[in-house]
Write a structure and sequence with these properties.
The termini are close together. The chain folds into two domains: 2-207 and 397-454, Metallo-beta-lactamase, Chain A; 212-394, Rossmann fold, CATH 3.40.50. The model has no long low-confidence stretch (mean pLDDT 94). The radius of gyration is 22 Å and the shape is globular. It is of the alpha/beta class and 455 residues long. The longest helix has 25 residues, at 86-110. The strands form four sheets. The protein has a seven-stranded mixed β-sheet. It has a seven-stranded mixed β-sheet with strand order 7-8-9-10-11-20-21, with helices on one face. The chain has a six-stranded parallel β-sheet with strand order 14-13-15-12-16-19, sandwiched between helices. 32% of the residues lie in helices and 22% in strands. The chain is built from 14 helices and 22 strands. It has helices at 39-44, 64-67, 70-75, 86-110, 118-126, 212-228, 242-255, 269-280, 287-294, 311-316, 338-345, 364-369, 400-410, 426-440, and strands at residues 2-7, 16-21, 24-28, 56-58, 81-85, 128-131, 137-138, 143-149, 157-165, 168-174, 197-201, 232-236, 264-267, 305-307, 324-328, 352-355, 374-377, 380-383, 387-390, 418-422, 444-445, 452-454. Strand 9 (157-165) and strand 10 form a beta hairpin. The chain binds zinc ion (ZN). Residues 61, 63, 152, 177 line the site of zinc ion.
Length: 455
């Protein structure tokens, strides 16, 4: 059995792992590299392996850094089966066309060839099959696989492979991104225990979130402050999960009478489309969220909420007097309508920008969060004079304690032979690996890009 790290090694984004076992070549995730100024060049490079000889692709979840290069895989010759959970398959079918639009318009702007085209994307989507959690699939006489809820976004899956070779049975788990329970919407993590090998993400490998109990109060405080200043609250938000969780949280706060009445706009066509997909998979929600659905209140709607899918509707937000809340993509301010709102509202000290999701190194969101006094948006110099707040506890990612807990569960009975720390910046990955070695006596390593391991 051999494992090679073609992406996601010492990088948060670009997850792409090749497992060669039991006569099969199995890929897990094929994500876009994001954030770095070299991202475009890195994404454009060949994948580094013979795509046509890959038998299966397993997708952990529908974030672009896990699915964004799937059409490129198709373009390079992959024609195997793509497995994902049912919600992941449905969200991917909405998210990839949006990614394609961005790729095509960026390629036009620089007069270069796009990373892939519509044929590649449609070909790839046709290979995709949605499967329920905990259904064991047999891939060959030697290899079976089963998906477990990783609690990160709707449908996020830890894929657990079992390989039986000459009477020896080994298990390896690819959790993708790991959630930060309890989630307002999702069920708790379905831990995979007693495996031989694992990968573990490390986006927050060196950080501890605020207590979950404090986050609702922190959100309330930020909204009230902005309301009192008659300002605009900008919330850059990921279209998958962050936006839906935030809507549910605001709904609960409005319903309880805790919030001043102010208009809330969800200004992201992608988030709006994905919210519709969420509505189809309520059986994947936790009991509390299902209860709200049953109340007939409607899960993603409340009286002051307006969806603005079209451009004229989006522009109309400018005419609505503050105080108001604008939730828009992209989550790291790398494109999307949030840029229009940031151009307009960052320079005014009555306003607030609130970060609730991960900001990758090199992104505009990261620069603002790190305190930049001015930024460039659409070629214009924009001073940053508004208030800036961060609430880490709304993150969909486990913090260091949550990641250690995931490793501890996977290591039940001291089963782990090796733990590969991926999907984090170098420092975060090393910090997590150090703690896993010291505290759990686990052989934790941080693989390099392109590095292979015989297991
Ligand atoms: Zn993710």
């Amino acid at each position: 059995m051999k494992l090679t790290f073609y992406g996601g090694a010492t990088h948060v984004t670009g997850a792409n792992y090749l497992l060669e076992a039991g006569g099969l070549r199995i890929l897990v995730d094929c994500g876009m590299i994001q954030g770095s100024r070299y991202s475009d060049e890195m994404n454009a490079e060949p994948l580094g392996y013979d795509a046509a000889s890959v038998d299966y692709l397993f997708v952990t979840h529908s974030h672009v850094d896990h699915i964004g290069r799937i059409p490129k895989l198709y373009r390079e010759g992959f024609r195997g089966v793509i497995y994902a959970s049912e919600p992941t398959a449905a969200i991917t079918a909405v998210a990839l066309p949006d990614t394609l639009d961005k790729i095509v318009s960026e390629a036009k702007a620089c007069d270069c060839a796009p990373l892939y085209d519509r044929n590649d994307m449609e070909g790839a989507l046709a290979l995709m099959r949605g499967v329920p959690y905990r259904q064991r699939l047999r891939l060959s006489h030697a290899v079976t696989v089963e998906g477990h809820d990783s609690g990160h976004v709707l449908g996020s899956t830890a894929w657990e492979f079992t390989i039986e070779d000459q009477g020896v049975r080994r298990r390896i788990v690819f959790p993708g991104d790991i959630g930060n329970p309890p989630s307002t919407l999702l069920q708790d993590i379905d831990y995979v225990r007693g495996v031989d090998y694992m990968l573990v993400e490390s986006a927050y490998g060196s950080r501890i979130h605020e207590a979950r109990s404090e986050r609702r109060q922190m959100l309330l405080d930020v909204i009230r402050e902005t309301y009192d200043r008659k300002g605009v609250l900008m919330i850059p938000s990921f279209a998958v999960e962050r936006t839906q969780e935030l809507m549910l949280e605001l709904d609960t706060l409005f319903e309880a009478g805790d919030l001043p009445k102010m208009p809330v706009f969800v200004d992201s066509p992608l988030a709006i489309d994905i919210t519709k997909v969420y509505g189809r998979f309520s059986s994947y929600f936790n009991a509390e969220a299902r209860e709200i659905l049953k109340d007939n209140r409607g899960i993603f709607q409340f009286p002051w909420l307006t969806f603005t899918p079209s451009v004229p509707e989006s522009k109309h937000i400018n005419d609505v007097p503050a105080p108001k809340i604008v939730v828009a993509g992209s989550g790291m301010s790398q494109g999307g309508r949030i840029l229009h709102h940031e151009s307009r509202y960052l320079p005014d000290n009555r306003n607030t920008i609130l970060f609730i999701g991960y900001q990758v190194e090199g992104s505009l969101g990261r620069r603002i969060r790190d305190g930049a006094k001015d930024v460039t948006i659409f070629g214009n110099h924009i001073p940053v004079r508004c208030h800036m707040r961060t609430i880490g506890a709304y993150s969909a990612h486990a913090d260091q304690n949550g990641l250690i807990e995931y490793i501890r569960q996977a290591n039940q009975g001291d089963s782990l032979k090796k733990c590969f720390v991926v999907q984090g910046e170098e420092d975060a990955a090393q910090t997590l690996a150090d703690r896993a070695r010291q505290e759990l006596k686990v052989d934790a390593v941080v693989p390099r890009l392109g590095e292979s391991f015989e297991l």
